[in-house]
Amino acid sequence: MNIEFLGTGGAMSIPRPLCTCKVCIEAREKGVPYSRTGPSIFLHGPDLLIDTPEDSYVQINRSTIREINGVLYSHWHPDHVMGRRVVESISADWRNHPPENDPVDVFLPEQVHNDFDRFLGSGDHFNFFKEQGYATVHKLSDDENIQMSDTTIYPFRLAESYVYGFLIENDGRNVLIIMDELNNWQPPEFMKNIDVAILPAGIFDVHPLTGEILVSPDHPVLKEEATFKETVEVIEKLGAKEVYLTHIEEVNGLSHDTLKVVEEKYAEKGIRFTFAYDTQIISI
């Protein structure tokens, strides 16, 4: 199984529209890996798309994806769902009459399904997809997994209980994918020493190299989001063989080159991880 990082940005992608900071200017000039689109991952093998940010059209068109057998959502936040119309684009038949649509399986963990009916019109939109024959929507109970060919996906709630992480088993290998909201989460024993962990990087409240304060200590975001330091603590507790960090926010003001230096700094202390970049493909 291969995993393709379609987008490694966060709520604010890089470059941020109209922003003239040095990170955004560099991203416009150089593109990938300095630029980052919204958070999304694709699992080759089961051919499963996880989350659909606004950039989904661009991400899929530039990717190596040839077929999508399912779409899975981690939570309702706009940076993870607002590109959902891509479901229609990949399944609707606009040429034949009557149409010969090829509906996509959409998997919604229990709380995600409930929240789609409350926020951003996602529930109404997917009801429309069902009526038009564009999607088959599966509401998953909290004890239910997804079986796709030789891959099993186990959704589980995080400490922020409206958000789900995914434990994936394929050919004797285990992958942990948490798209966002690592705040207050502690890995259970059975998830430790897994093969690959993909985690959100967290908020850089202080500069990881200089110690400069980047976010005011009393900022309310620090009560809702894990910091990079807290993410590192999770990495140490997990003990995964490989760790990739994503959901990297523009507001952090850290370039791709700076993040590579951060990797080296922590590797010297025996803490190894890689900041993922858009279009990156890893083999499991």
Automatic annotation (TrEMBL):
Transmembrane segments: none annotated. Residues 50-248 form the Metallo-beta-lactamase domain. This is MBL fold metallo-hydrolase. The lineage of its organism: Bacteria, Bacillati, Bacillota, Bacilli, Bacillales.
